[in-house]
Amino acid sequence: MREKKSFLGKIDRPIFSISAIIMVLFVLWTIFQTKEAGETFNAVQIFITNNFGWSYLIGVTFFLFFTFFIALSKYGNITLGKDGEKPEYSTWSWFAMLFAAGMGIGLVFWGVAEPMTHYTTPPFGQPSTIESAQTAMRYTFFHWGLHPWSVFSIVGLSMAYFQFRKGLPALVSSSLYPLLGEKGINGWIGKLVDILAVFATIFGVATSLGLGAMQIGTGLNYAYGLPTGTTTTVVIIVVITALFITSAVTGIERGIKFLSNANMLLLFIILAFMLVIGPTRFILNGFTETIGSYFQNIIQMSFWSDTFDTNPGWVGRWTIFYWAWWVAWGPFVGAFIARISRGRTVREFILGVVLAPTLMSFMWLGVMGNSALYIDVFKHGGIAAQVAKDASTAVFAMFQYYPISGVLTILTTLIIAIFFITSADSATFVMAMFTSGGELNPKAGLKITWGLIEGAVAIALMLAGGLSALQTASIASAFPFMIVMFAMAVSIIKAFRGEFSELVQLKLNIESSVGDSTPTEAE
Q: Is the pTM of this model over 0.85?
């Protein structure tokens, strides 16, 4: 690898140069050819969704079954590090950091907006009925449940294993070592894989930055009457970009870890308050009912492709977008949770990464979604109508029907801002790793550079089409990386089998040696 010492520190020239140049050209084209860019994004989304939507459904469902197969197999006892190595972070801090990086803004944005949208425009059946309310909660759990975290766990498990147990660089390409060998991961195929990981990360995070900025603007409007619109959103992205770059430069221990722990505390405060002042019995009954419905219908939901709707259908607008978004987030969330998971066993890693955040997501969705549905179903409120006008207003519109709405609005806006920062600085940290040859502690200059590019891409996409452009960027960038993820699954199985073969051979050699040294009766 060709390296260069500079303000950026150690960099991998091909990966950094190609990625940075293409992203700069993309930003310039999007800003100066806004209309053409928006039309192109729309055409790309329709093409991929119509022609390859089925592949997202099959792929992400495969990742879910694959992760549980690994966790429950004999490979679950393998340590992501040297044998006997202990975890670097406490379980609470580990959980807080991976949850903040992996869900964050999106969960707060869609926690009320998605159930209310599905309530009035369900995937099937009559809208605005008891049945559509039940379907709405089930599909919201589905989109934020086990499937996304299985995507993150595939990438994270592969990277953690090859980094900490095999001593390879912290790169996505390193996880393909059993398939490509040393020459392959250091050659053009390895470089291409790492460049794809950078692109997927940038566009996946840009979607969250856009969603977060829109919702922060709405929260400030509800709390202080500040104006909303594209200009306000761009200003918020600029301010938050400066904040998350500062957090990324301070490192995991002082920046990301502190903010993640603080945000989890705020999240639990709001959940506890809404559970007490809201329709408590309805929330608990709804949570229990939705859990049962979710597991009862998970196979059908996983493979339902909306075949007879050609426009591209409800699944294309929702499930396929989500699956693509999670795959786009795979490189940076996977790489980040790999970075903080050294010393954990494979089984502990998978069950922790897949089950614990899923439960936390269900708690948030169950409390917030059911609180909103209760108002519209039984009190004839207007939350759904408000969401139809502007999805970013959803959670704040719901708060208006409950006590101390102003305080809840301010706290939620603060949570969104912190999630904004933790997600973005995690991504900045990871992109610096990818473009520095896998450095676990890349230089501040490289983090600053990618932080600025992240913010610029988010602004460009907002100008080119808002939420629609953000969604298209995720779907387009995720498609090639999903192919890489299949290769990662094959690679990790091959590596695990090789490790067990070595253990068996070592055991046979020891037994043979002991047998040869045992004195015979004649002796």
A: yes
